[in-house]
Backbone:
């Protein structure tokens, strides 16, 4: 099993979710995060005080999938999240040691 | 001719015989006079009670929201509490001795205790101050001014003052700075009173000197005494919720109609005039600040807009019942630009941490407004000052009275000095009793938790 951690633009979240649902992936965890890669931030001014904000709002999706579906999911996710501009985000892939469904103790890929 | 008269007389005699007393012309006129005065009183009292409520609304939630939104999230409750608690504390002080020390006729600098425990303050009007409304109404209206004045100072010591010290500070400050200043300007026999026998008549319609200069200058003293917040100018300290600040500013704008127009103490043409001047100044100041900001920083900010409107309202406060609408626009415009420069350029240049710009807006705006009152005041708007022959006296520079500006300077200087000296002494006392500044760990943790054991937002629950 593989865990996919995808950091995408917040306005792309709906499109990514729909695309994943389209290939039968419906389980995921979504968090609002802040961060940046090469994307420049912006300047805010409050009563003359300047602030450089370089941590930008992003959305992190975490999903665990059967290893056999990895390329399919990566492809679908990337295409849905892409705008072609700097700031689109990144995807990281990890190995998963175990998965358990809490409700009934299912294990492994059956728990996904 | 004689026949109708004879009929009338017969009718009168018959009705008199039947037991009904026909009212005489005198008694009818007296009844009419009484009814008119009662109607005037009812109108005035209704307006004044509403005004009192509007002014209280300026503190809670107006100022509480305005200031609350400007601080960091961990201090939102503590900051709102600074305004809220004074609604309680100052009320008690006012009821016990405050009204008396301010409006009892005592010396030139302080009233006496004739109204202590509100003795004698009931439904009968106090002819010296407001002849058409119950004295209770006048008393409670003035109370709302006493409440908001120390609350304004909290902008300077936000995010780092101990709550216990703050309570003692504002209590002593109200007693030793506000009551004397208010007495001098508005009390009978006060040194600076314009209408009640002051030696140096100073024109302050609704509290430019009494409320804004005293609180604004005290704020600067507090900011300097307490020192800068930890991380000031190195850590980001952005307003955590400007939405609250915008709502607060709008409540301040609307509430200010009670503050200024209500200072006419009647539902009169003067109240209308003050209402209009107030509104126009707020509008012009908003635009003035935004224009200055747009030019200097490239973008007009919402915080700038609401700060501008407050600056205009502050500046027009002393002038509101004395100036015409067009000068009100000018006063507002000037305040918008001047206060913008105060909180951006001047504050940055000297580096003091007047966290919420109480000095930059209230101290500077109040001083500017008090001076411009001496320029633009005119008897065409307010003719209550009369000479021995009963003719209205010329008020300001535009009417040819150059001396008023000098009197305004005296009033301004007295306000500054009283604020500076009073605040230093009181801060020292509070520091000895409680320590005024919170411990560094408490400051980092935030006042909400360290002072009050609460968090403003528990969205996860």
Residues:
């Amino acid at each position: 099993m593989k865990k996919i951690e995808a950091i995408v633009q917040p306005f792309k979240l709906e499109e990514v979710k729909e695309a994943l649902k389209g290939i039968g992936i419906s389980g995921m965890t979504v968090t609002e995060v802040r961060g940046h890669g090469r994307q420049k931030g912006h300047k805010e001014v409050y009563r003359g005080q300047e602030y450089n904000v370089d941590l930008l709002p992003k959305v992190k999706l975490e999903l665990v999938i059967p290893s056999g579906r990895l390329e399919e999911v990566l492809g679908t996710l990337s295409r849905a999240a892409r705008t072609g501009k700097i700031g689109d985000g990144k995807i990281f892939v990890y190995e998963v040691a175990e998965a358990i469904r809490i409700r009934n103790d299912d294990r492994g890929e059956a728990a996904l | 001719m004689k026949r109708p008269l004879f009929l009338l007389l017969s009718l009168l005699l018959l009705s008199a015989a039947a037991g009904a007393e026909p009212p005489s012309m005198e008694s009818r006129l007296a009844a009419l006079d009484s009814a008119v005065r009662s109607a005037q009183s009812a109108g005035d009292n209704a307006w004044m009670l509403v005004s009192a409520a509007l002014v209280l609304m300026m503190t809670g939630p107006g100022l509480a929201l305005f200031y609350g939104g400007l601080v960091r999230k961990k201090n939102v409750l503590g900051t709102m509490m600074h305004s809220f608690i004074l609604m309680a504390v100052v009320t008690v002080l006012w009821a016990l001795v405050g009204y008396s020390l301010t409006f009892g006729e005592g010396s030139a600098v302080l009233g006496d205790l004739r109204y202590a425990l509100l003795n004698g303050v009931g439904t009968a009007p106090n002819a010296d101050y407001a002849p058409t409304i119950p004295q209770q109404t006048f008393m409670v209206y003035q109370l709302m001014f006493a409440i908001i004045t120390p609350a304004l100072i909290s902008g300077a010591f936000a995010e780092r003052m101990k709550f216990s010290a703050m309570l003692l500070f504002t209590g002593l400050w109200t007693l030793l700075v506000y009551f004397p200043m208010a007495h001098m300007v508005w009390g009978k026999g006060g040194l600076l009173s314009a209408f009640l026998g002051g030696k140096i008549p100073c024109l302050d319609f609704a509290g430019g000197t009494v409320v804004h200069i005293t609180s604004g200058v005290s704020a600067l003293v507090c900011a300097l005494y307490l020192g800068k917040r930890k991380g000031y100018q190195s850590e980001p300290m952005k307003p955590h919720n400007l939405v609250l600040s915008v709502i607060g500013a709008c409540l301040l704008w609307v509430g200010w109609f009670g503050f200024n127009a209500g200072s006419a103490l009647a539902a009169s043409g003067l109240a209308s005039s003050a209402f209009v001047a107030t509104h126009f100044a707020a509008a012009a100041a908003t635009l003035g600040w935004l224009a200055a900001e747009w030019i200097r920083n490239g973008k007009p900010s919402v915080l700038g807009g609401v700060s501008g409107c407050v600056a205009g309202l502050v500046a027009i406060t002393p002038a509101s019942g004395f100036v015409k609408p067009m000068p009100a626009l000018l006063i507002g415009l000037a305040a918008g630009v001047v206060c913008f420069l105060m909180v951006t350029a001047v504050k940055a240049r000297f580096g003091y941490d007047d966290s919420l710009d109480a000095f930059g807006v209230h101290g500077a705006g109040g001083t500017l407004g008090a001076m411009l009152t001496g320029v633009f005041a005119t008897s065409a708007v307010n003719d209550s000052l009369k000479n021995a022959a009963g003719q209205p006296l010329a008020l300001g520079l535009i009417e040819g009275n150059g001396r008023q500006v000098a009197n305004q300077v005296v009033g301004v200087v007295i306000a500054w000095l009283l604020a500076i000296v009073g605040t230093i002494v009181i801060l020292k006392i509070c520091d000895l009793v409680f320590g005024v500044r919170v411990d560094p760990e408490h400051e980092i943790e935030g006042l909400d938790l360290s002072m009050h054991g609460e968090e403003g937002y528990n969205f996860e629950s």
